[in-house]
Design a protein that fits this description.
mainly alpha; elongated
Length: about 90
């Protein structure tokens, strides 16, 4: 049970990082940075193709879907095994 709870904590932390990553890139770009390496020469000379936004959005959505599935599995596992009595609000 402890391993599943630890995995749940790691998955939730990773999901928060994936959600906050675009904001961190945007803040870095606005403050004159490279967007965490996304635009190495800065925002003015950053090459933008027509698929860049779609690719990044698809990667972020896929990562969130995988993490969400892992979180749901961990919660379901804890609920069915009785390891989350009172702490997991499923059912």
């Amino acid at each position: 049970m402890a391993a599943v709870r630890f995995a749940l904590g790691v998955l939730i932390t990773l999901a928060v990082v994936v959600v906050l990553l675009p904001a961190a890139v945007l803040v870095d770009l606005v403050s004159g940075g490279t967007g965490l390496g996304l635009c190495p020469t800065g925002l003015g000379a950053c090459s933008t193709s027509m698929y860049t936004f779609s690719e990044l959005l698809a990667i972020l959505c896929l990562a969130l879907a995988v993490l969400g599935g892992g979180i749901a599995w961990c919660l379901r596992f804890l609920h069915t095994r009785g390891g989350g009595k009172g702490s997991v609000g499923l059912g």
